[in-house]
């Protein structure tokens, strides 16, 4: 038995792979639900209703999906160039901290708001520039450096929240000062938490899709991702492309932190992100690294996470089933993608 690359990858395979992965994920997760002694149909119905069954459910799902779209785009653009950014979680926190630091300064909101967003993007981009330089100059594996930087950033955030940026009114809780109301993103619907950051995220997904598909930079990214040595042979600037990809990827993750602060939280805490950076990797893989697919995948994952909170109140299944579904979906997508690109030969 051996794996053989398909001569031409069918579009049906590539489009069907995410749906097959989701179907397999739900089938496997059903075994865990049955193991917990809960009715499978009832459990999945509650998850769906909790994530998509009402106006409130949709608003919570879209609110949760907003940072997931941005971290998903961050992973998608990096992975396209075979630069494996595992540090979006740290870049998100760096962006959030930079946004609060700039937003808390004195000045007119019309200037502070764009400065705040640019500072967040710069913080995320510069944080990822270090692993990119280590990769391109010294051959250091970016998976290790970006992953370890997550812990370094979280320790730095903890130091800042207990020190210079601590809110005096927080009563001992590690929390930054809040942004002024003038720097908050407006709501898209009354009496909900969904905000205009969602439009930013969807707009960036469309822009990134167009850039990757129709520009010379997008061609260079695809070429480096397909074969870096071959791309260098035909004149593609591999090092420059990798560095630019790293800056874009880090900036998107940093912007996710700023939008989460300006749109929902108003301040930085150590539990501000329930793993948005890591979930972005799953979303990028479910979307097959397609920026437009990232939007749909982020809404699906957000709906599962929000629906699981509602489901746990109706049946005796813990909310951790949502994390199981997300984890299995990543593994299922990897297997489905492998079958889309390779066939099994038994001879």
List the helices and strands and how they pair.
Layout: E1 2-5, H1 11-35, H2 40-52, H3 55-80, H4 88-103, H5 109-138, H6 142-161, H7 197-214, H8 216-226, H9 228-233, H10 238-265, H11 276-286, H12 291-311, H13 320-341, E2 342-345
Antiparallel strand pairs: 1-2
Number of strands: 2
Number of helices in the DSSP assignment: 13
> Gap between N and C termini, in Å?
6 Å
Largest sheet: 2 strands, antiparallel
Basic shape:
globular
Widest sheet, order of strands: 1-2
Q: Helix/strand-derived class? A: mainly alpha
Helix content: over 70%
**What is the radius of gyration?**
21 Å
Spans of at least 5 consecutive residues whose pLDDT stays below 50 are none
Question: Helices and strands, in N-to-C order?
Answer: EHHHHHHHHHHHHHE
Percent of residues in beta strands? under 5%
Mean pLDDT: 88
Kindly describe this structure.
By secondary structure, this protein is mostly helical. The chain has a two-stranded antiparallel ribbon. The protein is built from 13 helices and two strands; from the N terminus they run βαααααααααααααβ. Helix 3 runs parallel beside helix 7, helix 4 crosses helix 10 (238-265) and helix 5 (109-138) packs antiparallel against helix 6. The termini are close together. The protein is globular and about 70 Å long. The model has no long low-confidence stretch (mean pLDDT 88).
